[in-house]
UniProtKB/TrEMBL annotation:
Cell compartment(s), UniProt: Golgi apparatus membrane
PANTHER family: OS11G0490100 PROTEIN (PTHR31444)
Name of the protein described by the UniProt record: Polysaccharide biosynthesis domain-containing protein
Major localisation: Golgi
Length: 305
């Protein structure tokens, strides 16, 4: 996902530079083909929102069967960003930083939830892939380095990315945990994000879109967290937990945390995302399904887990 992994894996990536891009291109192409076959069978897009009210099923099928063939073909056509992604990964030596197994965890959820609101912390070599796997959805990337945003958008101007600033540093991780346990505005029953300057773990000063959107999927693969002065992912993990708990819509919020092999990521995941909500672990990726506070049997107190 991010540049820190590029330095660590440069030699390994060189060996697989032609294999993995083709695999990713095939993954995206497979998603398009799957959507097409399903459309041919039941005249509904793979990523159409499923209507659970049985009283409308017959009416919807009738309308679908009366569509013209041209309309059906139009709806099965791959989006422009999907086609761009296939070409990009099929011809590029630069590959996504997550493994195929790790990517598949998120992809399996996207197949069920898209089109959805997908928030990604970090902008990198897999951003085009994530956008293409959420066709007709809303995928937004948050990146700490404004120059890197310009570099990526130069080659992929269709991506939706915001440069953001973090208030934390990795060296403060232990102190931030102590702060959260004593600051009432960080408590799960009172925590909020926009304008919450008293809670040092709350992400403040971000674009309005970040606060105004109810995110279905949240991927945390940034900011940098491998040297003391780096922002670290403490605030991103805390804020993801707050957004998930404050969810108003149906269902859970899916949170994916990468680099779980590192101490800070693991510690903050267990503190805020909770082991009991961990549903899958593949490689260095943990997948959580976090219910809203309204759906929890007990959600008071001063701790998230």
């Amino acid at each position: 996902m991010n540049r820190e992994d590029v330095a660590k894996n440069r030699h390994f990536l060189a060996d697989r530079r032609w294999v993995f891009p083709l695999v990713i291109a095939g993954l995206i192409a497979g998603a398009i083909l799957t959507s097409s076959f399903i459309k041919a069978a039941d005249y509904s897009m793979l990523c159409s929102v499923v209507n659970s009210r049985s009283s409308q099923v017959v009416a919807e099928v009738s309308v679908a069967n009366n569509r013209s063939s041209s309309q059906a073909v139009a709806e099965t056509t791959a989006t422009a960003v999907q086609l761009q992604a296939i070409i990009h990964y099929a011809t590029s030596r630069i590959v996504p930083q997550q493994s195929f197994g790790e990517i598949s965890v998120t992809f399996d959820v996207l197949k069920k939830r898209c089109p959805c609101n997908f928030l990604v912390f970090g902008l990198g070599y897999d951003s085009l892939m994530w956008t293409s796997l959420n066709p007709n959805g809303h995928t937004v990337f948050l990146e700490e380095d404004p120059k890197w945003v310009q570099t990526v958008l130069k080659d992929a101007p269709g991506l939706h990315a915001h440069p953001v600033k973090y208030r934390t540093q990795l060296r403060e991780a232990d102190a931030l945990l102590s702060h959260y346990r004593s600051e009432k505005n960080c408590f799960p029953s009172k925590a909020y994000l926009r304008g919450n300057t008293k809670c040092k773990l709350a992400l403040t000063g971000f674009p309005d879109e970040f606060y105004d959107t109810e995110w279905d999927l949240i991927m945390i693969d940034a900011p940098r967290g491998y040297f003391p002065a780096a922002p670290g992912r403490m605030a991103a993990i805390f804020s993801a937990a707050v957004m998930a708990r404050n969810r108003k819509g149906p269902g859970v919020t899916h949170v994916f945390l990468h680099d779980i092999d590192r101490k800070v990521e693991k510690t903050f995941a267990e503190e805020f995302l909770c082991r009991k909500y961990l549903v899958k672990a593949v490689g260095r990726l943990w997948h959580f399904e976090i219910p809203s506070a309204a759906s929890m049997s007990s959600h008071g107190g001063a701790q998230f887990c």
